[in-house]
């Protein structure tokens, strides 16, 4: 499956774009509670959303005990994410469904690139001292360069949270701009670790700063924080993507990551994207889930919808 690549060339640093940003938490919560209320997703629409969700997953393994064998199994799952008989029940066996990408640590890039050869599925690498992002700057830049050299088409960078927590926006801008330069032609996703920000206003300002610095995607979390992706944070980040597009004409992608494990949750995120940003953000070029276990639950739900009989997790090959 191909999807257009959107590139954010970035802008100069504009302190004035940040000054007016204030987020009303209860307003955000009310909007999230109302998501999709007008038209609940069921039947054929539910199947379409679940297949769409799969095409947008960055199928991820980020464990200290990852092995080439585990990454190869993950890649096999990325190539064929749903059992053929389940897809056939929806007349979708020949749709060429794959996940959006496979996401690994640097040391597993070459294994993943080899296992995905000929599929067009990109390999994403977490970088810049993931997950804390506290390695020396030169080391973080060098890590990006090496990952790109090893074949990663997408680089998920982590920002220095202290810059966000102290409101040092010029420092955050300079750091992310340097990361973007190191990425070259590779697509850069900026992980903000929003669960560690003090408020939704900080999330909004940090989102705006990293987009000015050239982030092609903004991403919630590493998956390692105590609080990872949430719908309120996603609403705030989506609104910033909209503001940035209004100011610059540039479309930036969105990647909620961490703790998204249920098919029903995935549908809520897609509804949020559709209602807040429009259909372009329902494609892998502008939307990804960072998730290690979501695919299994979606496949199970699809089997349940295909057969009318509740499916069990053990029925599905998991990477
Ligand atoms: O970026 C991806 C996350 O690390 C995945 O988190 P998860 O294992 O909670 O799905």
TrEMBL record:
Enzyme class: lyase
GO BP terms in the entry: carbohydrate catabolic process; deoxyribonucleotide catabolic process
Enzyme Commission no: 4.1.2.4
Known catalytic reactions: 2-deoxy-D-ribose 5-phosphate = D-glyceraldehyde 3-phosphate + acetaldehyde
GO cellular component: cytoplasm
Record keywords: Lyase, Schiff base
Record pathway: Carbohydrate degradation; 2-deoxy-D-ribose 1-phosphate degradation; D-glyceraldehyde 3-phosphate and acetaldehyde from 2-deoxy-alpha-D-ribose 1-phosphate: step 2/2
Pfam families referenced in this protein's UniProt entry, alphabetically: DeoC
PANTHER family reported for this sequence: DEOXYRIBOSE-PHOSPHATE ALDOLASE (PTHR10889:SF3)
NCBIfam families assigned: deoC
Similarity-based family: Belongs to the DeoC/FbaB aldolase family. DeoC type 2 subfamily.
Protein's recorded name: Deoxyribose-phosphate aldolase
Organism name: Gimibacter soli
Top-level taxonomy: Bacteria, Pseudomonadati, Pseudomonadota, Alphaproteobacteria, Kordiimonadales
Record gene name: deoC
